[in-house]
């Protein structure tokens, strides 16, 4: 990679501002130390080779000038737009002050000549190669010019070597030459190091940026996936919980952070409902299992889990990764498919049985009717004949139910207003001997949209659900009838854009949990007088209209049937 360094253009202004602030800070520190040393030597009168130099009045002038200039720099630096030029000005003024300090403390023999080197290094750090060589040139001119005018007596000399006849112009030339070579050599080396530092810093920043982007990218992936993901440490405490995990479980990250994972997901340690035994770190690579899970709001879900080890860069086990998905809908679909297959099989059997039984039954019923008219029956004989006729009628009604169960979609479909069908059915129920006057009916109607169906079959559906609700409330209660539209955003029917929801809820005795999976099975009933075909036929009718029935129940409190039907096309 080719990196072109531009002394001014590529320098980060914020970083340069920070470096200039540090430069001013160290300048003040050095000046303060010099001032303190001068005052201490003068007050204590401590004999020292530095005493004549540090107690010189010119040193105090230099220190005061440095404090003054630093104050000016500090109040103007935030207003300066071109910080690079400002840095050139500061370091250039520093070289003039260093030259004056060298003159005041012994000239060519001054111990402060090394300050030139510090200025050159500072320029190389702040201004890179161009700045370093510029300050090296300024130092060379000032130092060489100062020694020349001092040597030729143009200014008073603070040192006596120039009066020594052994020190001639050749010695002066070599002194200046060696120092100039040293200045440029320092500028070259320091700028080279500064450039390498700059390149390394840029590469480090780029790598850091790439690392941050990669970390953000990975985090976004983890947070965006539809599967729940959590990690634990070696002690089983939760260290990470993504957004999907929060939505699935109902727990926020703050609720579960640093808690034991087994407290939130008990099946991680209990072998119940298909879960596994406590997870170990020795032989486990990846484990998959399913289990029920109770959300924070009390709802029960069916989750599928995949658990694997979490390792560090040294392949050392540091915890677990647990990925899970909400399989509740899939389980419901699986149960629905099983039920549909079971009902379809029973339906085919029922159709065959009904077809084979209807003709013989009709013959038997007709024969009994003829015998009843031709024979003179009295007492017990008349009663037995009536029983035979009633039972044949009941068998015929049962066969009719079989046919409806087997082929529910053969009815004549039309666009019907669902609320009218419900109202007519409820009116028939309230006028029948099945009705309980202690039941209060509450309506919640927000839609009168039509559905395409056979109104007689819909009446059969609602009649059976109403009968079950009435029988569940022998002591009275409340019957809620709710109708509303569902748009595509909350539609439970996956094949449609819009559907109608009909909810029929009662406050009766409820349905035991062990019976919920069987209530739509043919011939399943808990009533003494029931045939067990009512809800099975209702399910088959709604299913033939591409609809769905969902039942929820709390034993001892309430039961609700939710029916979803596609809205009729306009």
Provide a descriptive summary of the structure in words.
The protein is of the alpha+beta class and 570 residues long. The protein has four domains: 13-205, no CATH class; 226-326, Beta-Lactamase (2-Layer Sandwich); 331-406, Orthogonal Bundle (Helix Hairpins), CATH 1.10.287; 411-566, 2-Layer Sandwich (Heat Shock Protein 90), CATH 3.30.565.10. It has helices spanning 13-44, 51-54, 57-76, 83-104, 114-151, 169-224, 243-249, 253-256, 261-264, 328-374, 380-406, 418-430, 455-471, 534-544, and strands at residues 228-233, 238-241, 286-294, 300-311, 317-326, 414-417, 439-445, 450-453, 477-486, 499-506, 548-554, 558-566. The strands form three sheets. Strands 2-1-5-4-3 form a five-stranded antiparallel β-sheet. A five-stranded mixed β-sheet has the order 7-9-10-12-11, covered by helices on one side. The protein has a two-stranded antiparallel sheet with strand order 6-8. A hairpin with a 3-residue loop joins strand 11 and strand 12 (558-566). Helix 3 runs antiparallel to helix 4 (83-104), helix 10 runs antiparallel to helix 11 (380-406) and helix 12 (418-430) crosses helix 13 (455-471).
């Amino acid at each position: 990679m080719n990196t072109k360094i531009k002394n001014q253009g590529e320098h980060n202004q914020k970083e340069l501002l920070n470096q200039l602030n540090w430069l001013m800070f160290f300048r003040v520190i050095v000046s303060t130390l010099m001032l303190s040393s001068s005052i201490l030597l003068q007050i204590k009168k401590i004999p020292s080779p530095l005493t004549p130099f540090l107690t010189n009045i010119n040193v105090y002038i230099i220190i005061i000038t440095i404090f003054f200039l630093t104050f000016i720099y500090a109040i103007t630096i935030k207003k300066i737009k071109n910080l690079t030029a400002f840095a050139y000005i500061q370091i250039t003024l520093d070289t003039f002050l260093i030259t004056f300090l060298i003159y005041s403390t012994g000239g060519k023999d001054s111990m402060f000549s090394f300050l030139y080197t510090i200025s050159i290094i500072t320029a190389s750090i702040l201004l890179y190669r161009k700045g370093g060589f510029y300050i090296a040139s300024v130092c060379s001119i000032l130092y060489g010019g100062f020694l020349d005018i001092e040597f030729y007596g143009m200014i008073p000399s603070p040192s006596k070597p120039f009066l020594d006849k052994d020190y001639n112009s050749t010695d002066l030339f070599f002194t200046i030459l060696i120092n100039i070579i040293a200045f440029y050599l320092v500028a070259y080396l320091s700028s080279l190091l500064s450039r390498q530092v700059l390149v390394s810093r840029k590469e480090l920043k780029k790598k850091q940026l790439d690392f941050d982007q990669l970390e953000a990218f990975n985090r976004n992936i983890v947070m965006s996936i539809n599967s729940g993901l959590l990690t634990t440490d070696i002690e089983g405490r939760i260290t990470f919980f993504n957004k999907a995990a929060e939505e699935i479980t109902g727990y926020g990250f703050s609720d579960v952070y640093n808690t034991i994972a087994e407290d939130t997901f008990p099946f991680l340690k209990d072998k119940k409902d298909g879960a596994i035994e406590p997870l170990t770190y020795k032989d486990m690579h990846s484990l998959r299992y399913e289990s029920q899970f109770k959300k924070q709001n009390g709802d029960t879900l069916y989750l599928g889990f995949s658990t694997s080890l979490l390792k560090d860069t040294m392949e050392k086990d540091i915890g677990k990764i647990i990925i899970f998905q909400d399989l509740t809908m899939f389980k419901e679909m699986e149960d629905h498919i099983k039920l549909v297959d079971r009902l379809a099989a029973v339906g085919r059997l029922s159709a065959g049985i009904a077809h084979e039984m209807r003709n013989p039954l009709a013959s038997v019923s007709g024969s009994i009717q003829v015998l009843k008219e031709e024979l003179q029956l009295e007492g017990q004989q008349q009663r037995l004949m009536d029983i035979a006729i009633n039972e044949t009628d009941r068998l015929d009604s049962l066969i009719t139910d079989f046919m409806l169960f087997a082929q529910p979609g053969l009815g004549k479909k039309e666009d019907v207003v669902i609320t009218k069908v419900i109202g007519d059915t409820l009116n028939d129920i309230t006028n029948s001997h099945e009705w309980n006057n202690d039941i209060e009916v509450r309506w919640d109607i927000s839609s009168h949209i039509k559905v395409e169906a056979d109104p007689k079959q819909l009446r059969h559906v609602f009649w059976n659900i109403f009968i079950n609700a009435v029988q569940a409330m022998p002591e009275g209660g409340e019957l809620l009838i709710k109708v509303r539209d569902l748009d595509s955003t909350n539609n439970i029917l996956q094949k449609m854009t819009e559907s109608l929801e009909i909810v029929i809820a009662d406050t009766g005795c409820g349905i035991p949990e062990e019976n919920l999976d069987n209530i739509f099975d043919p011939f399943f009933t808990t009533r003494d007088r029931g045939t067990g075909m009512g809800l099975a036929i209702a399910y088959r009718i709604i299913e033939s209209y591409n609809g769905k029935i969902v039942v929820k129940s709390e034993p001892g409190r309430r039961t609700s049937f939710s029916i979803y039907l596609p809205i009729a096309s306009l």
